[in-house]
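BUG: 3D viewer hangs when loading the predicted structure for this chain

Environment: internal workstation, default settings.
Expected: structure renders.
Actual: progress bar stalls at 90%.

Input used:
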Amino acid sequence: MASVTAVKHNVPRLFSACRIITLLSSVLVALGSGTNYIFSAYAPQLGARLHISHTQLNIVGLAGNAGVSVSGPIWGRIVDFRGPQIPLVGAFVFSLVGYAGMKRMYDEGTDSGTSISSAHFLLLMVCSLLTGLGAHAGVVAAVNTTARSFPESARATTTGLVLSGFGLSAFFFSTIARILFPGDTSALLLLLSLATSIPMLVALFTMRPVPLPQTYPALKDDVNGEYELLPSEVEPSTAGPDVDTVGVAGDSCVPLADIQPENGLSSTSQMGYNHGHLEADNLPDVHGKMLWSTPDFYLLCVILSLLGGTGVMYINNVGLISLALFAEANPDYEEEEASKLQAAQVSTLSVGNFVGRILIGLISDFTRSKFNLPRAYSLCIVSSLFIISQAFAIGISNVGTLWMATAFLGFAYGSLFGALPAITIDWFGLAHLSENLGYLSLAPLIGGNIFSIIFGRNIDAHTPHEDTNTSRGVTRATITAGGDVLRDALSERRCFAGQECYVSSLKITLMACMVALILSTWAARRDKHRQKARKG
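Structure tokens produced before the viewer hung:
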């Protein structure tokens, strides 16, 4: 028994400092990875500075979303088999280069009245793409590490907490920008380039997967309330005293040497990267070709495309929506005032996103444990929230009340992606979680592209050209990198028709969300029947 007790103490307690440090590091990484949501805070100014249309501006935003979605399977496979270190390095490089490149292009601007060249527009898209690549690399490493470090009973809550940091990112950075340098888009881009890269370096030393106790009921210690391990399952560490550990004095933390990749693969016996851990948890193992031949995968992809696409369209364009409503009543507005309105919408969206990612995890865990309802039922709640958000947005004609639609949309969007990791584990298993999530993350890109292009063309169709009598000049204040204030009279292409600028696009997304609700109900019922079948 003494040998079993010795082995038991090689695995950190459930709420040990090791797990808490890993969780906090994951939240920090996620906080630096959610800056794609702040695009609306600087997009109108970027478009005006470089003289590009709203449709082109949407394409730039979609490039960032594409970086997130397309890289999903790649980062997922890397983190599943190699751990979080490589994605963290990638997140550091891509985020720094992407935002720094956008800042330089913004600072240089263009000649008055001329749009940027095709080559420069392509470069702008590449910079936006890099920010998406970096964002997804960071968040996939954070979510995967958290999911492997906490048991099934707390998995939805802890991953939801990490993803809430991802959702709160836009609020955090937009608030800093609004307080320290209001209206200074160049300073905001500089902040983003640094604040999205530095946390990744910190996490390289503090964010490590922590092994779970094996939950063998027959071996549970009734006196101490802890789980004992079979001596054959975990070998005592042979690491010497020079091997560093993640944790603090007094905690029995796993040595870093035990979780570094060996011969190209992670130390799977301790970290649960192999199928043996899944057998203990009684989870499925669906991945690769099997995933692509599973009907449930396509059902979930369609739901994500409709709901996620709606969210991407609104998030990328909420700044334009607020400007359209504000400009209708204040055609001669100051740019600094417009920037504050955009920042307020981004902050509201981010807070809603943050709350949604936390609450949906708590709701999902509660309904599963108390009412034995599959987590797929949370998709019905999410779809309903999206419908409410689009209905509000269609009916709002005053920028002062736009926050209600934005809050609902942020809450719904955060709930969607807060619930997704736990649903993916329930349906397809934990062994290839990040890879499977990567494939699923491609789905919102489809809907997001379609809805965003529709939105851009809609608002361009209602925007007067510069040579018409309805075109209005807007006095713009720009703070350069040197700190000098320059006021240029720019004939910016703005839509002054209020709701008419965009409402047709929202009617399309409202119908899409209604279809998603029907599909979510079907998915939940299928999951319930599958759960009953497993129980016999």
